[in-house]
Structures are given as C-alpha cells and as structure tokens.
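Encoded backbone
================
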Amino acid sequence: MNAPLTNMQTRDVEALLHPYTNAAQHRQVGAHIIAEGKGIHVYDERGREFIEGMSGLWCAGLGFGDEELADAAAAQLRKLPYYHLFAGRSHEPAIELAEMIKDLAPGMARVIFQSSGSEANDSQVKLAWFYNNARGRPEKKKIISRRKGYHGVTVAAASMTGLPYNHLDWDLPIDRFLHAGTPHHWREAEAGESEADFSARLAHELEEMIEREGPETVAAFIAEPIMGAGGVIVPPEGYFEAIRPVLDKHDVLMIADEVITGFARTGEWFGSDRFNVRPTSMSMAKQLTGGYAPLSAVAINQDMAEVIEAHTGEIGTLGHGFTYGGHPVGCATGVAALRIYKERRILDHVRSVEGVFQAKLRSYLDHPLVGEARGVGLIGALELAPDASGQTAFEPGGKVGAKLSAELAERGVILRNVGDSLAFCPPMIITEAEIEALFAPLEDALNVTESWAKAEDLL
C-alpha cells in the first residue's frame, strides 16, 4: 500500500494563488502535486496512484494519456499553432468542429467559441441582451437561474451561479440576475408531494417570479440539465416539461448549461436530450476536448442566429469575441475528441455500464451517513445527512463531506465533496472492473467518517 497522504511531504507553492482553496490554510499544509495520468488514474510526484473519480474537474471523459488526442493537438501546434476568428478570418479546425457540434446539438444553427465554461455562459448573457435589443425590446434583460446552480465565475456567470461562496465578498450578484428554486425533490419537496407535483409547483413559482418582475423585463432562464457543483442534483420527474411552457408563454429564452453534462456523460449526447430540455441555446466545454485543451462553445438556434446576424448588418459588427476563442489547437483537439466519442462508441459504453455504476451508488443507501443516492449515466452523488428524511443536515455543513473525501484520498480514490454531497464523475472509459475498484474503499471510508462524526458530536 502507498504511504498515506497525511505522512507525505507536500510542496509549498508560494507563487500560486489556488482557486477554491483556503489560502491561509494552504500556506500551512502546502500543495499536493499531481505529476502524471494514464487511463482513469493519476499519479502524484511521490508515485502514489489514485483513481480520478471526478475526471479532474468533470473534464477528462477519455481519461488521461490518450495518445490520439495528444497527437491531434501536437499536429495542430506544428501546422498552425495560433490564429483568430476576428474580422472574417477563419481556420479549418474551427469550421469542422462547429459543424460537428451543430450536427450533435438538438436544434442548434450557429456556434461561437470561447475558452472556458464561464466565458461561454457570460457570452450567453450578452447574446440574450443583444438579441433583445435587436428585436426592439431594450427592457427585456433579466436572467433567471436557480439556487445551487453553477454557471461559472466571471461577473455575469457568477451572478447566475446560485452558491453563496461565489457571491460572498465579491459584491455579487449584480443587478438583473434572479434565482428561482432548486429542483431537489428529496430536500425541497413538501410532505407527501410527488416528483411530478413538485415539478409543477416549481414551474408555478417560476411563472409567478416572471409575472412579478414583468415578462417584458425577463430575457432568459438558464439551467444545467443536472446541477453539477451544486451537488449533482438530478431534476425530478417532469421538471423541464413543466418549465418549458412557462418560458414559451412569456417569450423567455431557455439556456441549457451543458458544460458538465455534454458529450455522452448522461447516456445521451447532451443532458438536454435525456431530460427533454428543448433549449434555445447551449453552453458546452470540459468534455468538448476531453479536458486536453481549453475550449468552450455557445450554440444558438436558427431564430437567434437570424436576428443577431441581421443586427450586425445594421450596426456594423458583432462586437464580441475572445483572443483565444476558437484557438486552432483547442478546436483540433475537440474535433479529435468528438470523433473518438463516435468511433469508440463511448455513448454506447456509458449506457452499458450505467446500470452497474448507478447500482453501486445506491447500494450505500443503508449506511447511516447516507441520506440520498442520485445520478444518471456516469455522474452521481451520495448526500451525507444525519438521516434519510431529507429534512435534516449536518451543522456546520461541509465538514463531514470533507472528512469522507480526505479518507478516500488516503485510500487512493479522488472524489469531490460539494458541501456534504460526495460527487462522482469518472472518465467515461471506465470499465465494470474499474467501477468496482472506484467504490471498493467507500464502505471503510464511510465507517471511519461515521466514527469521527460521532466523536465530533456531528451525528
């Protein structure tokens, strides 16, 4: 067995300010350096092996060290290492990838590239505003997202994000951004309320919000098909089917944030396909390149495309874009990733192992620490709670989840606690045997965490 992390010397990295890290604490403990990756595993600088159960940050759908992806990036670096898409210039990788996305994404007509999911969602806001200005509706600008939704960290994207730590002391959210209810039946439903009734209530509450604000002021509703960083929250039965007529009635755009759920993760090409979202536009990133190069994209439907393109003719240009948006290396990597997904039948593979993966998740429902197990495809979560009622939570929140995550890391599995939810998002190449290995240390880690929680008077 490898030496435990608690006995390892970690490196002090003074020059870096690490995202989503307690910097004061980090100065005391140092950084854990990941040095290499192969398949579903990563290796730290001391040679310790870990199953990467989160695909990094929900990204590496094809795992680590894929030679075909690396070769595609290297070949493009040698051929055309950089160019832009400004002022009518273009390059073949961007054109090819846009066509591939258009062919896969339901109802989409045009694609515009960025470098990150945050930039994609920021672009969604600007495009919605531009679209409504082009239609002569300058007041129709408010964006509705949801509590616990995650849409990124730029000023607009973080304003859409419905998580406190993305707002605290950042002076966010800014004006024009609103947050509707979280579609988490286990936590939020009223006593005896079915999933379908809960969905209907959330749709009614959304309509009340739109009417209260004034439909003439509401531009768009943005939602992840599955809420990722909010805890891998799967929508209840009939949720998007109840939401969509409300948006149609009030002429509100439906933005699907597919940054995590895109490209086979849910057992369909997009989460929108799995949950009948019917989006007006879509944001995508992460598995667009398998995480091998920074790239994101926004796809818009024909109506938005026609209105926006016509308006650029009136005012002279589309005054939006990024220096690295559509970077040729990122696009070439994306072309290779989408081709690999098809050639290696990754979608079929996800469907074939989904039952095993989801059954393993749900097999821990009897453990005293586990309140709920949820997920679809190769994404899921265990929510830790004092009981299974959905009415109680650990106080303070997050400590139990962090302890379990640390215990699993000691046992060679990297997962991510989102508060007291333990998130799973393994590379989509994972085999049934590797799924068994991913879950193998969980029972022991849960038991140790349970004993610790009792000693800490948390349970």
Summary: The CA atoms of residues 132 and 303 lie 12 Å apart.
